[in-house]
Amino acid sequence: MIDDEREIRALVATWLEATRAGDTQKVLSLMTDDVVFLQPGHLMRKADFAAAAQAQSGAGAPQIDGTSEIQELKVLGDWAFLWSKLKVDVTPAAGRPTTRAGYTLTLFAKQNGRWLLARDANLLVPVEAG
Known about the structure:
The protein is of the alpha+beta class. Helices cover about 25% and strands about 50% of the residues. Strand 3 and strand 4 form a beta hairpin. The mean pLDDT is about 95.
């Protein structure tokens, strides 16, 4: 595995660890300033992501955990893409836990020698408990 691939896999692992720890600043540091997140019927930019993360932090914050199974990763110069199977579990302080799972397609850009998440499209859907 080439160094770029290793760095991108480490970024994904760091993202999941920082999310688990509620470290919003760390997660924000892993994305470009012009990042775009695409979800069915919804588009989110970095400021939107930061606001949503801030709203879910502090006392009573939900616990968020996830797993990412990278299916394919290709580096093309200063751009790279991966698609993965992602599962996200959200356990609120009060209320029922929820799970969303599905596929993602993520683009990374290399800026100043560092890989950052630049675009992300996810097709996560609710998973029924059972």
